[in-house]
Amino acid sequence: MSRVVLLVLLLVMGCDSPAWGKVLFLVHADGSTAKADFALGATAVSSVWPDVFKVAGTIAGGRWGRALNLTSGTSHCAYDATRNLDPRRGTVDLWFLVETHKEGMYHPLVGWYRPPQQPGKKKRQSAFEVYLLNSALTLGLYTPEYKGHIKAATLKVGQWQHLEVNWDCTAGPGKSVYNVFLDGKRVI
């Protein structure tokens, strides 16, 4: 009898801190623009450099309906990170399709390239990028110095692939955890 009580007590103690998820930002790209469906911050989409690149549109033939069209070298897609991305802890989850590939081609998937300055003009908070280059997946971290993590990855040209990046930087300097999953398999 005491073993059952102990087991129940351990189960209850293990369940006292549930994992809570909170959607900060969501884009389905089902319309003619890449405007976010939901955002705690701004929903508008913009170009990284408005004077040089136009804003990416959407095309039919997405994984489910329409998709962002990032096939042109003259269009980009950027969203304001303020309130839409938590630099301390979070997850970015997306589907992507690479239509053509040759060795040496760079395929940027997701990134946070211009994090805001901390109060008092202190160093920037963490920033990251994930991209495919040749047969490798790279997680580039800016904390604020650059550190890259590169692992072999299978690029399936012409097929939809799933990417998930999650991070937890709440434990302090040098104790951050980053994970990158490709098609459900942890790569980095």
Q: What is the number of domains?
A: 2
Main β sheet profile? 4 strands, antiparallel
CATH topology of the largest domain: Jelly Rolls
Number of separate helices: 1
Structural class: mainly beta
How big is the Rg? 19 Å
Mean pLDDT: 78
The helix/strand series, from N terminus to C terminus, equals: HEEEEEEEEEEEEEEEEEE
Poorly predicted parts: 1-17
User: Approximately what portion of the residues adopt beta-strand conformation?
Assistant: 35-45%
What is the helix content? under 10%
Based on the coordinates given, report the CATH architecture of the largest domain.
Sandwich
Give the CA-based shape: globular
Instruction: State the distance separating the first and last CA atoms.
Output: 45 Å
Q: Mind telling me the CATH class of the largest domain?
A: Mainly Beta
- Total DSSP E strands: 18
Provide the spatial order of strands within the biggest beta sheet: 9-16-17-18
